[in-house]
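Hi support team,

I submitted a single chain yesterday and got back a structure, but I'm not sure I'm reading the token output correctly. Could someone confirm the output below corresponds to the sequence I sent? I've pasted both exactly as they appear in my results page.

Thanks,
R.
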Amino acid sequence: MHLAYPAVLAVLLFCTGLYGVLARRNAILVLMSVELMLNAVNLNLVAFDVWLRDTLHAGQALTLFTIAVAAAEIGIGLAVVLAVYRNRGTSDIDRLRDTAETDAAETLPDDAAHPGDPDTEDRTTAAAGKAKKAEATA
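Hi R., thanks for writing in. Yes, this is the structure output for that exact sequence:
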């Protein structure tokens, strides 16, 4: 058997998975694309193991470890996605990026220490609301 056939198939699988990771917005579909990429790597490992005629079958053994790691990754990934979906109501990745960004209302500037300024009261109210929301989701 020629090595080119499984290698080309693995490249096509990997590129399809890479496109899915870069283009998809749903977290479940991104996890499925990562699994597709791992399966392409597994195909390469087994193909090179057969092509090299390794007596220890190191490629096949490494493939079993990769499958075990992929199963653990998908289990933890699905648990995280379900927890985020319960808290946020969506699994859209673009909406989840907002959690990592800091908001200007979370930190008060130094000139906000003037108690008579109405702008200061709005900022402190917004900061208190954000703190309550953070406690509720924790």
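A quick pointer for reading it: The chain has five helices and no strands. Let us know if anything else looks off.

Best,
Support desk
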